[in-house]
Design goal:
By secondary structure, this protein is an alpha+beta fold. The protein is built from three helices and ten strands; from the N terminus they run βααββββαβββββ.
């Protein structure tokens, strides 16, 4: 297997800003940050790197919750990190990523938000009132590194500055 990436924590300042935007009543942000679990594969044969909940988070049927992971990925050119929900949570609770598949480009690492990977999930269970609580340290998403190609006539030369949707408004 080629080794093409490295997970790192974002700075505490970036994590605190993003966490408090999502969960403004949190009092122990430093503790949450200090105890962030880095993504890892569960077995030698696993393709996906599990992403873990930094603190307890509840997804209620019909509502979305944004989870700042505190993680960024330094990825070699020609590779992308694709994010998916953990299959068990999808089967049991219909937990899904709001954007279906998250795409983390190599140049996201240098974005204004330090390349902070934030994962937005929804619970779409059939029964009313259903909720799923992700406890601190629970795996809830998985990331798979994939190679990609570009067209022969590709001329992209812009530099990324932002995160979500920042590359879609270019002419």
């Amino acid at each position: 297997m080629p080794k093409i990436a490295q997970f790192e924590k974002v700075s505490f300042a970036q994590f605190e800003k993003d966490w408090l935007k999502a969960f403004p009543d949190t009092e122990n942000v430093r503790t949450i940050y200090d105890e962030i679990k880095m993504p890892k594969r569960a077995t030698a044969g696993s393709a996906g790197y599990d992403f873990y909940a930094p603190a307890a988070v509840t997804a209620v049927k019909g509502k979305s919750v944004l989870i700042p992971t505190g993680i960024r990925a330094r990825i070699e050119e020609g590779w992308v990190l694709s994010l998916y929900p953990r299959s068990g949570l999808g089967f049991k609770h219909r937990l899904q990523l709001d954007n279906t598949v998250g795409i983390i480009d190599a140049d996201y690492y240098g974005a204004d938000n330090e390349g902070h990977i934030m994962i937005k999930v929804s619970c779409d269970a059939h029964d009313n009132g259903h909720a799923v609580t992700l406890n601190k340290g629970d795996g809830f998403a998985q990331g798979i590194f994939l190679p990609f190609g570009i067209t022969l006539d590709d001329t992209a030369d812009e530099k990324r500055t932002g995160g979500f949707g920042s590359t879609t408004n270019r002419a």
